[in-house]
């Protein structure tokens, strides 16, 4: 790692690479959502300022998994793509009901633990249910990676899911551009984006709504889903493409 100094000063060389800051001391942890029990590897708390938010389970995932476990009929036989999957807790729950689940993330370190958790579930007693569970790299707004997903899964998906993925202002526009392309890719029937949103700032609350509208979508709160998660307010939104005449 090189650190540039001011004019006239020598360049400083720090003999540490990024891996030095990465905590990969994952713990096998049990989560329960109604009758669904999920065991997976995750950290218990974030320990770096590097972009490794996905190494642990966030309140938005708890909110979404509670909702999905109570409304499992929504998932029955469906195809699902999850954005910003982190350790995979939402996708793994979905794989117990869905025919195909594609878990995505942009961070290489997070993808490593996500794949480990998929393997863990494939080798567990639930392995029959996890046959359609795969991980793919997908950074929001990356046209090459989006193109790969659209081509590989050319029939599209019934549902796009996202849990606690709205926390960085600069990525929201790219997130909704990506969602719009995924919703449009549906060959038959309608695809919905289900977003478990956790409110941390007023600016983000309005940005999420305005970006959905900018991308030609309607965004509605799912009745009865507004609740306290951790010590924050969370809600589940359903986002769909506006019909031509709306
Ligand atoms: C706060 S974590 C939530 C993880 C998981 N969904 C949960 O609720 O436990 C946000 C996730 O989004 C991923 N992420 C952030 N920015 C992204 C981007 N621009 N493209 C793709 N994934 C992104 C992170 O790597 C991380 O896994």
UniProtKB/TrEMBL annotation:
Molecular functions per Gene Ontology: protein methyltransferase activity
Cellular component, GO annotation: nucleus
Domain of life per record: Eukaryota
Family matches, as Pfam families: Methyltransf_16
PANTHER family: METHYLTRANSFERASE FAMILY PROTEIN (PTHR23108:SF3), METHYLTRANSFERASE-RELATED (PTHR23108)
Official protein name in the record: Protein N-lysine methyltransferase METTL21A
Native species: Prunus persica
């Amino acid at each position: 790692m090189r650190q540039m100094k001011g004019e006239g000063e020598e360049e400083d060389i720090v003999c540490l690479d990024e891996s030095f800051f990465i905590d990969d001391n994952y713990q096998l942890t049990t989560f329960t959502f109604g009758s669904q029990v999920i065991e997976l590897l995750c950290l218990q708390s974030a320990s770096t300022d590097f972009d490794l938010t996905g190494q642990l389970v966030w309140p938005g995932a708890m909110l979404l998994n509670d909702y999905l476990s109570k409304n499992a009929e929504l998932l029955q036989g469906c195809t699902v793509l999850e954005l910003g999957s982190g350790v995979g807790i939402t996708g793994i729950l979905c794989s117990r009901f869905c025919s195909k689940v594609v878990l995505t993330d942009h961070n290489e370190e997070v993808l490593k633990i996500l794949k480990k958790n998929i393997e863990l579930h494939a080798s567990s007693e639930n392995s029959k249910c996890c046959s359609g569970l795969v991980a793919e790299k997908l950074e929001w707004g990356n046209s090459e990676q989006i193109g790969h997903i659209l081509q590989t899964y050319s029939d599209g998906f019934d549902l796009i899911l996202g849990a606690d993925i709205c926390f960085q202002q600069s990525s929201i526009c790219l997130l909704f551009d990506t969602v719009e392309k995924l919703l449009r890719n549906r060959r038959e029937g309608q695809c919905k984006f289900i977003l478990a949103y956790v409110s941390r700032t007023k600016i983000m609350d309005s940005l999420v709504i305005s970006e959905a509208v900018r991308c030609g979508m309607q965004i509605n709160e799912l009745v009865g889903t507004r609740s306290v998660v951790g010590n924050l307010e969370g809600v589940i939104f359903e986002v769909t493409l506006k019909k031509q005449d709306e």
